[in-house]
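Hey,
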Amino acid sequence: MKIIDNIGAANIETISLPTYADCLALMDTHVMLSNIREHSFRVMQVADRLGQALAAAGFELHLPLISTGALLHDIGKTACLGTANNHAHLGADILADLGYPELARVVREHVRLEDWGADPRRLWEGEVVNYADKRVLHTRVVTLAERFADLLVRYGRTPEARDRIAVMQVRTAALEQKLFATLPLTPLDLLRFNGDEAPNLETSGNV
């Protein structure tokens, strides 16, 4: 299993990530609501499972970056509730200011992959976190169809918004095919997470 960072194997030691305790402290500092914490933990579970399977299949991935990026993907969300601000960009700014540029990039792209083709690898960590987030509705793992139906109800208030969501759904479906093409898993296998106990951030230290 080959694991590298998103700027090349020679620079793997340069990646700095917060510890699990640091992540919990950041959630407190940025007043992350309990439902967002629980959602974040479930996204981390899904991203971890996918990352491990992809690394075993030969993809070059930094697994701790996937775990931490999934756990902190919504770190900017509470501050953006009720505003037009982009919570992915705010979260990325928070983490970049703390000295975590690779983590900031993953968080910035968890809603919409904006940096297509910037990474020379077949797959990078941000794609795994982006997809994992699209499979979790609150704390429940769902199909892409169900997740995007919910997004349309909650955010599709204008024709422009509905068009953006439709484009995102097409791109995420393509990403799903890319992720699972060489895996012994299917997208439906991830639904097994729904049989787990409710996510508990205080007792799990996977990061």
